[in-house]
């Protein structure tokens, strides 16, 4: 899929991995609508991106992925402004085992909400242009992160939802591909002060420190490059891409 003339929506776009995905898609020719709750960071970013790529290539919309109403309004505004949606990156996420219900609401339900609202605009069966959805899970979506059981559960959920949607879309003729990225530890704000985010499992913090020092960390640009691959490679549907400091590979799952 060539990105020139295409419109992407990225959630959690103001910082970190979402910012890197946004910049990668812009660099490759797409228009990008940035959704985030952090208005000040997003506005500063969009100002800079507009100078670099032009005023008509980006749009920031304040949107909390916990709210179906805000997502609906954001996607409608996107379609009104740019004429349709071709790419959705459900990326917003938090790590907070203390507020575990909020974690489920953002990390898993936010992906489902975003996808279902976007489908109304992207699905070829309801007049959309088709396209591709890339969800941000984590290596914790493939195996357990023992300090973060709920984070682990949400990311396993994102992997399962993505793969099932890929099959449903292919079998139904939606014209939309669904893929998921599973990065290891990435250098962003997300990794700052991890002990405070582990709730009742903070006594296990050493385990994570050892994992990080053994595994190393990724740059956001490595992750964004993988998202670009999953957006542009039209052979990829229902794929989960593991990204770690020494490389990346597509995950093989048991067949059903
Ligand atoms: N940093 C890491 O080590 C890894 C992160 N991930 C995942 O990558 C995604 C992005 O993480 P980072 O960029 O590292 O985090 P980050 O904390 O740097 O950025 C997250 C962004 O999402 C936004 N956000 C948070 N809640 C939101 C909501 N309810 N609605 C809309 N926007 C919201 C924040 O304002 C922020 O701009 C998350 O889903 C995270 O689980 C996956 C693997 C590794
Ligand atoms: C405090 C912990 C913080 C947050 C969670 C992270 O942000 C992230 O979402 C979770 C990452 C979990 C990583 C788990 C294991 C990583 C292992 C490696 O990177 C090393 C191994 C990979 C080899 C893969 C292979 O060779 O097949």
UniProtKB/TrEMBL annotation:
It comes from the Eukaryota. GO terms for cellular component: cytoplasm. This is 15-hydroxyprostaglandin dehydrogenase [NAD(+)]. Catalyzes the NAD-dependent dehydrogenation (oxidation) of a broad array of hydroxylated polyunsaturated fatty acids (mainly eicosanoids and docosanoids, including prostaglandins, lipoxins and resolvins), yielding their corresponding keto (oxo) metabolites. Decreases the levels of the pro-proliferative prostaglandins such as prostaglandin E2 (whose activity is increased in cancer because of an increase in the expression of cyclooxygenase 2) and generates oxo-fatty acid products that can profoundly influence cell function by abrogating pro-inflammatory cytokine expression. It is an enzyme of class 1 (oxidoreductase). It comes from Channa striata. It holds the Pfam family adh_short. It catalyses: lipoxin A4 + NAD(+) = 15-oxo-(5S,6R)-dihydroxy-(7E,9E,11Z,13E)-eicosatetraenoate + NADH + H(+); resolvin D2 + NAD(+) = 7-oxoresolvin D2 + NADH + H(+); (11R)-hydroxy-(5Z,8Z,12E,14Z)-eicosatetraenoate + NAD(+) = 11-oxo-(5Z,8Z,12E,14Z)-eicosatetraenoate + NADH + H(+); prostaglandin A1 + NAD(+) = 15-oxo-prostaglandin A1 + NADH + H(+). Its EC number is 1.1.1.141, 1.1.1.232. Gene3D superfamilies: NAD(P)-binding Rossmann-like Domain. Belongs to the short-chain dehydrogenases/reductases (SDR) family. One of its GO terms (biological process) is prostaglandin metabolic process.
């Amino acid at each position: 899929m060539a990105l020139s003339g295409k419109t992407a929506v990225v959630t959690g776009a103001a910082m970190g991995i979402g910012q890197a995905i946004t910049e990668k898609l812009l660099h490759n020719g797409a228009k990008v609508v940035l959704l985030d709750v952090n208005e000040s960071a997003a506005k500063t970013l969009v100002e800079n991106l507009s100078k670099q790529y032009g005023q008509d290539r980006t749009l920031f919309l304040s949107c909390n992925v916990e709210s179906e109403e805000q997502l609906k309004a954001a996607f409608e505004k996107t379609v009104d402004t740019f004429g349709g949606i071709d790419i959705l990156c459900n990326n917003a996420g938090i790590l907070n085992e203390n507020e575990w219900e909020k974690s489920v609401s953002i990390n898993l339900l936010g992906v489902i909400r975003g996808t279902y609202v976007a489908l109304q605009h992207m699905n070829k069966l309801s007049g959309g242009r088709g396209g591709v959805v890339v969800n941000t899970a984590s290596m914790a979506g493939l195996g357990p992160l023992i300090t973060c059981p709920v984070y682990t559960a949400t990311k396993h959920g994102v992997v399962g939802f993505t793969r099932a949607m890929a099959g449903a879309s292919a079998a139904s003729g939606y014209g939309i591909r669904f893929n998921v990225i599973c990065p290891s530890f990435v250098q962003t704000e997300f990794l700052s002060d991890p002990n405070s985010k582990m709730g009742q499992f903070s006594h296990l913090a050493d385990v994570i420190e050892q994992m990080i020092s053994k595994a190393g960390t990724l740059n956001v640009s490595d992750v964004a490059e993988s998202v670009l691959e999953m957006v542009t490679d039209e052979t990829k549907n229902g794929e989960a891409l593991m990204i770690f400091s020494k490389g990346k590979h597509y995950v093989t799952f048991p067949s059903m």
